[in-house]
Design brief:
This is Chromosome 5 open reading frame 51. There is one protein chain. It is built from 12 helices and no strands. By secondary structure, it is mostly helical. The longest helix has 25 residues. The N and C termini lie far apart (about 45 Å).
């Protein structure tokens, strides 16, 4: 960390600070306040501050500032000419906290540095953003016909993000120690549903799998990753190359969510 971690934070801070030059908003104000606190800590000398504290502050700023920008996209109904690049940009920014952990040469899993809730939120926000984007553009028949590969990639990446978000906590194992009055709660926890956001992630995943089957057709979902993707090839800088079985995964997610 001392060899260059604080410098890495400073570089990422400058880029994030530029995103605050936007209309006033509660989330922007929160993000800006987090940045100011982070800059003050860096100015005092990061040797006296644990890296996890700095990285958690940075992550919270990323989440607050990008939330405002995502809300603008939703309010504007994802403008056809510009929204794909904006979605790509936001998914990239939401990947930065984990990248920064690596760049700072911290030999720890990001979840041990940032904490489970923040890491879950980073994946949830990317998956939910792609869900909302797909929910909107699937109604644009001409666009969909011309960009079906991009649409499929958005679905594939979005489901991967949501499944990753659901994987960070171990489902509760139900046994004889679970009392009767806790039975319903225990059943939810045994399915990995620890909050309404976890439940919504399951629903979103199931819906996206359904759209994949309905609009992209049956058959194995091929990888959409390319060695050097074109700028307009998809929403994320990191393609999730593992093919998805939309039918089986969707059935599993929707069964769990409806039974809950």
């Amino acid at each position: 960390w001392k060899a260059g971690g604080s410098g890495a934070v400073g570089g990422w801070l400058s880029a994030l600070r530029g995103r605050c030059v936007l209309p006033s908003d509660t989330f922007l104000a929160k993000g800006s306040a987090a940045l100011e606190k982070l800059e003050a800590l860096c100015g005092e000398g990061s040797e006296n501050t644990h890296p996890s504290k700095l990285l958690q502050l940075y992550t919270q700023a990323v989440l607050d500032i990008t939330y405002f920008e995502e809300s603008q996209l939703v309010d504007e109904d994802f403008p056809e000419e510009t929204s794909l690049e904006k979605v790509k940009e936001l998914t990239s920014v939401l990947s930065e906290p984990e990248d920064l952990v690596t760049e700072c040469s911290i030999n720890e899993d990001p979840i041990n540095i940032l904490g489970t809730e923040l890491v879950e939120c980073l994946y949830w926000r990317r998956g939910a953003l792609l869900y909302m984007y797909c929910h909107t553009v699937k109604e644009r028949s001409e666009w969909l016909q011309e960009n079906i590969a991009i649409f499929k990639k958005c679905l594939n990446d979005g489901v991967h993000y949501l499944m990753k978000m659901l994987s960070f906590r171990c489902p509760l194992r139900i046994n004889e120690d679970v009392s009767l009055q806790d039975k319903d709660t225990a059943r939810l926890l045994s399915e990995g549903i620890f909050s309404d956001t976890h439940l919504l992630a399951m629903v979103y995943s199931g819906e996206m799998c359904y759209w994949g089957l309905k609009l992209c057709g049956e058959g194995e979902q091929e990888s959409l990753e390319t060695p050097d993707p074109a700028p307009d090839s998809g929403p994320g800088c990191r393609s999730h190359s593992a093919p998805l079985d939309f039918r089986e995964l969707g059935k599993s997610m929707l069964t769990k969510s409806t039974c809950s």
